């Protein structure tokens, strides 16, 4: 999948508007509310200082985190990962389903590989297309591992591709996810703090101060929007998924509820290619369900996965192995249960999923 973004020249417009709005809102809050209302009108100097220190500290952290999001960028899968050596598995699957040489296949050991500078040994499980083949990026000439998607903005595959944020003008990926979360949290706290303090200390309900009412409405509205984003990000951390993966699951579920014909759902259904549990010379393709969470390892492990330094992975086989370790134990057990009841197809066979 190639993730497209907005035009080159229109992309900065929304972030610029956001900066101008936030700067004006902070100035209006600091001058009209803190200085003019709290200090000059009410004479409460200590509250004015406290409010100014809190909001301007949050404002500074917010700006610094925004700058870090832009400077760091989402990261990229810089190491080219060669295709997996799957020909022998495909051949074995075809022969087995054609009832040729069945006995030798079922008693065979796992195939061995000669040293190759091109093909990689496939891991025990990996994401694949309906035919059981791993996803390939023709632009990068590499397998798309580490939950990567190709970005038209960076012209590279981005590991842990989360989403493109139009409001801050940057793609969010593995490298800049930390400062992005700091940005969202600070923005939400600052918006809530501004709204609440103006409501409590501004006397807007008694005097119907138009300026304060507008400030509360605007900051309150943005607090709801940013709060929804923060809630979704935290929910994604609990589920071990990215925004892109969550949106894919939502579209998938909607297509099922709408009873979309199966031939129109092929691009929505996800699959994994895994080694056969009873014959290691065969591989099988298992279809996922919309509620499956392949990378969910619990909140702590999910959080830590965002901050593992993938620059340590210098070789293609290291990236391939790490991609395998990203799958959760619960998900692997679920896949094993589906295999036990026959919900799979032999990799290399021409027939559909069993079950």
From TrEMBL:
Catalytic function, reaction form: L-cysteinyl-[protein] + hexadecanoyl-CoA = S-hexadecanoyl-L-cysteinyl-[protein] + CoA
TM annotation in the entry: 12-29, 49-72, 180-204, 210-231
One MF annotation (Gene Ontology) recorded for this entry: protein-cysteine S-palmitoyltransferase activity
GO CC list: endoplasmic reticulum; Golgi apparatus; membrane
Sorted UniProt keywords: Acyltransferase, Lipoprotein, Membrane, Palmitate, Transferase, Transmembrane, Transmembrane helix
Primary localization class, coarse: membrane
Xref: Pfam families: DHHC
EC number(s) per entry: 2.3.1.225
Subcellular location: Membrane
Ranges where the Palmitoyltransferase DHHC domain occurs: 136-248
Classification via InterPro entries: Palmitoyltrfase_DHHC, PFA4/ZDH16/20/ERF2-like
Topology of the protein relative to the lipid bilayer: Multi-pass membrane protein
GO annotation terms (biological process): protein targeting to membrane
Family: Belongs to the DHHC palmitoyltransferase family. PFA5 subfamily.
Description of its domains: The DHHC domain is required for palmitoyltransferase activity.
Protein name according to UniProt: Palmitoyltransferase
Organism: Pichia kudriavzevii (Yeast)
Species lineage: Eukaryota, Fungi, Dikarya, Ascomycota, Saccharomycotina
